[in-house]
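Posting for a labmate who doesn't have an account.
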Amino acid sequence: MYARVAATIGLFAASAFSLPAQQKRDLSIADIAGGDVPNGGPPASISDTAVAFFQGVNFLENLESAFFAHGLRNLTELWNHNNALNEVIEVVRKVQAQEVIHTQTATTILKHFNKQTFEPCEYVFPVENAKEFLSLANTITSVGIGAVINGAATLAMSDPGLVQGPASIIGTEARHDAFFRLAALGAVPNPAPFDTRISAPFALNLASEFIVPGSCKTGMPSFPIIPPLRAEVGKHVLVTGTGKDIEFSFEAAKVKIKEGEALWIGWVNQNNKFVFTKAEVVGDGKVKTTIPEKLSSVAFAALTKSKEAADVNALTKITIAGPAPVQIS
């Protein structure tokens, strides 16, 4: 049975987790993370676009902080047989603290401008052992990286003076992702020359799958709800190679498809143009397609009725289910 996780991350004022031993001593979150919220002060002004970005960061980093705190507790109390995971625990401890600092950085800016911030929700994470935790960590971190890449690109147009902050987060998150990919999947930690950009609605929809309905007491950022899409590749599995058939499932009642209607899977991978592959209905709420050639690292698959989209934000608007993260060797 999966644990229901409730957390108040900010300053651990009312955390549902027992603090790890290192945090029980004199070390602060900043000490563990290796640094604190940037001390240069907030910007002179920010646009509405930047407000939406930092609210998204606040919301997503809440989830990541809770996920790693939950995993850290299980690693230390349940899964560390014969001290085999001691080194993993030290890495996860630092990752969790760094996610807290990222959250505090976003909320500091939002509070300075009297904008809404979000407290953590309650979450359910489908992990029952260390391998499953590390594998899901790889996916969650990949989602976060993709969202921050998109945010940095957006800020470059609206608030160019703010790009440095998100850009510096990407490097840290990429180091997290490389560790989890190697530790969980035994896969090369640097599988591709570019990470994959996804839209804020894609990231927020993926995050919402872990949220207990009705548990976000201070609300959620506004975003279009897209029915989820799941890759039928087994739990926390690395897909080996491309050019192979793959099935995706979705809730048929939430995705209206007419008989004989053309369907596509749009593949988002690295910094490349989207590839659309024909999706064949193979059952109620199931489609089959072929993984395109030359994909690597994480790809995000979206079910659509069109194959016309100029960028990931345009793809989001035509997505009828998704995205589904697919880890590819």
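Reply:
Got it, the structure tokens are right above this. Residues 48-79 form the longest helix (32 residues).
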